[in-house]
Design a protein that fits this description.
It is built from ten helices and two strands. The chain has about 300 residues and is mostly helical.
């Protein structure tokens, strides 16, 4: 498949818009109310929605969006590690695989991806535990199948193109998440939060913001290491990381949820299941150390 075709599909992904009603139905088991959906879908002007989008985001909505994003990332890296792309000379090499790179491959680059899938799965566990009280039962997560442009896992150029698009979106989303959690901390301090939002104190929101920052750093590593694998120089080409055009997490036309949507719809390309990725995870991951920050 020509890389220009995948480039075009990436551009489509970046511009896609979400079927909000379907998303709210899918995510409903996390307790996202109809009121939020109705407010979003009302006749309010687009500009007013944009200005209010961050303040509209509830904590449950934000955590749900990031759970889906991390499940998506886990599924993406898994299929890269078992797909035809892994036999590229810059990865396991011809005839090689994730556990046994060939002599002509690059074992270090394979380890980068093995570490990335482990880290993404741990991030998903974190958000799942905040939503449900336990990291267990990923089979109950809102989305179980993710869709990628045809050929994504066939060639290195295609795979790295999607990797870069995803990681840039994740980085932008975590920058916004830090902002939104900081706002929640101020609201918690003033006693104005209700429902799920009120489960966390101001200090806990501050800690959650620092955890979001620590995850952001890991996602930035993934982005740069993807550029290292592709031989892009310099790999660390940003002096300041950007929001990638995102302005909110869940609500609004430029939300992280909008950026996720193409990967949730069959029209994008073939589907790949989270259950397969999690079942095969022990065969491909590279364990890394560290836990979420425990205090400020």
């Amino acid at each position: 498949m020509k890389n220009s075709t995948v480039d075009s599909q990436i551009a489509t992904i970046a511009q896609a818009r979400l079927d909000r009603r379907k998303f709210f139905r899918q995510a409903g088991f996390f307790g996202l109310g109809a009121a939020a959906s109705s407010a979003l879908l009302s006749g309010t002007s687009a500009k007013a929605q944009q200005n209010a989008s961050q303040s509209m985001d509830t904590t449950a909505e934000m955590f749900t969006a990031f759970l889906i994003a991390e499940d998506l990332a886990t599924t993406f890296y898994y299929n890269g590690l078992i797909g035809a792309v892994v036999q590229d000379p810059n990865l396991a090499g011809p005839g090689g695989n994730v556990r046994h790179p060939s002599a002509s491959g690059n074992a270090g680059n394979v380890d980068y991806l093995g570490a990335a899938i482990y880290q993404e799965s741990q991030h998903a566990n974190f958000f799942r535990s905040k939503l449900t009280g336990s990291p267990m039962h990923p089979e109950k997560d809102p989305y179980q199948t993710f869709y990628f442009p045809t050929g994504t896992f066939d060639t290195l150029a295609n795979f790295l193109g999607i990797l870069d698009a995803l990681e840039n979106a994740f980085i932008g989303a975590y920058i916004i998440l830090i902002q939104e959690l900081s706002y929640k901390a101020a609201q918690a301090a003033s006693g104005t939060l209700t429902g799920f939002d009120a489960r966390f104190t101001s200090k806990q929101y501050q800690l959650l913001a620092s955890i979001a920052g620590s995850i952001l750093g890991t996602e930035a590593e993934h982005r740069v290491l993807g550029r290292v694998i592709g031989g892009t120089d310099p790999a660390n080409n940003f002096t300041f990381l950007q929001t990638d055009g995102l302005t909110s997490i869940y609500n609004g036309a430029s939300s992280a949820v909008v950026a996720l949507t193409p990967f949730l719809t069959p029209s994008t390309g073939p589907g790949y299941t989270l259950s397969d990725a999690l079942a095969g995870l022990p065969n491909v991951y590279k364990h890394t150390s560290g836990n979420p920050p425990a205090s400020m």
